[in-house]
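Sync notes, pocket subgroup
Present: LS, DG
LS reminded everyone that the earlier model was apo-only. Rerun requested with 4'-deoxy-4'-aminopyridoxal-5'-phosphate included. Inputs:
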Amino acid sequence: MKNAEISARKNDAISRGVGMTTQIYADKAENSEIWDVEGRRYIDFAGGIAVLNTGHRHPKVVEAVKAQLDRFTHTCHQVVPYENYVALAERLNKMVPGNFEKKTIFATTGAEAVENAIKIARCATGRSAVIAFTGGFHGRTFLGMALTGKVVPYKVGFGPMMGDVFHVPFPLEMHGIDVDTSLDVLDKLFKADVDPKRVAAIIVEPVQGEGGFYDVPRPLMKALREICDEHGILLVADEVQTGFARTGKMFAMQHYDVAPDLTTMAKSLAGGFPLSAVTGRAELMDAPGPGGLGGTYAGNPLAIAAAHAVLDVIEEEQLCDRANQLGNRLKQRLEALRTDIPQIMDIRGLGFMNAVEFKVPGTDKPNADFTNAVRLKALDKGLILLTCGVYSNVIRFLAPITIQDEVFNEALDLIEASIREVAA
Ligand code: PMP
C-alpha cells in the first residue's frame, strides 16, 4: 500500500473538515517512532497531539490493556460499575492540585471534560457566564468552540456561538499585551458587559497549547484566583494538554501558588486510549443531580486500565525529572542557533513543553511561512513536528518523555538541520 493511494481514497471518503498535517499513513509505532505503510520510519515529536507522554505502546500500558481486554471491555459504568474506575478517581483526587476534598468524573475527550467542567460550574454556582482567553483552545464541541479564542478555522461557518461566553486577551508581552492589559480588559468587561456575580467560571490553560505554548504569567494566575474569590467565580484549569509530567510537574498548575477549583484532563492521561476527567472540589462536583453527568463510553474500562499504567510509569520512570532534562537539552540546542538564525524570536517552555517562535528577520512580525517550511523540511527528513500559535509561527515539541537518548539526539540534529536549511 502506498501513502498516495490511501490519500486519494481519503479525499473521496472523508470530509475535508478533518484537516491533516501529514499524508503518511501509520503502520506501526513504538515509543517515539512511527513506521508508515511504505516502511519509512519517522521520529514522532507530535505524540498524537500531546497524548503520548509515555510513548507509543508503553509495555506496561499494553500489558494493562491486554489484561483488561481478557476480562471485559464495556459494561457502562452507569449500569454495571467496575472497581478500577473508582480507584483511578481516588488516585486523581489525591494528585490533582488543591488542598481540599475532591471528587472526579470521567468522560472520553478533552472537549467533553471542558463541557462537563462548565456544566458543573453552572450547576454549583447557579450562574451562567464563562470567561476564557483569546488564543485559548478548549475543543470542537459547541461549548468548546465557543470558549476557544480563535475564529479561523474553529468557528467559521458554524453559526451563533453559545451565549454568555466572553474573551479576555491572553498576555503576550512579545506581541504587545501585558498582564495589566489583560486584567484591565477583564475589569472593563465586568463594567460594560457582564456582572461578575453572573459569572460561573473563568477557564484558563496554565500553558496555552494550540495557542502557542505560552504559560500564564504568575501574577496573572494569582490575580485570577483573587478575582474569582472576590466574586464567587470558579477557576477552571484546562490541563488537557499540559498534564501528566509534560511541564516537568505532574500538572502545570503546580508551577503556581494557587489551586483551581476544577481541573480538566485528557490526552496523556491514558497514553493513547480515549479518556478524560474532571477533578475538583467535592461539594462542586456533587452539585449536578444523579444522571446529569456521564456518558455511554465515559470511563471505558480499557482506557481506565491504561491510565493506571500511565500513572505508574510516570512515577516509576520519574518522567517529571526526565521532562526537565530533555527540555533543557532541547532549549540549549535551539539557543545555540540564535546567532545564526535571525528568524528565531523566542525559545521557551516549562519542562518538556517547549516551543520555538519565528519572526521575519529585522522585524517583530510573526513568520508563519518559515515555520511551516521548517515543519515540512523536518518531515522530509523523517521527523514529525507540529506548529501552533495564533499566528501559526510556533513549532511545538511534544515528543514522548520516554524517548530513548539516541533517538532524541538524532531528532535534535534533524531539528537543527531543518532550521538551518530553511534559513539558508
Ligand atoms: N483543551 C485543551 C487545552 C486542548 O489542548 C484540547 C485538544 N487540543 C482540548 C481541550 C480538546 O480535546 P479533544 O480534542 O480531546 O476534545
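DG: Residues 49, 109-111, 114, 137-139, 205, 209-210, 238, 240-241, 266 surround 4'-deoxy-4'-aminopyridoxal-5'-phosphate (CB under 6 Å).
LS: The chain has two domains: 3-57+318-423, 72-316.
Action: DG to write up.
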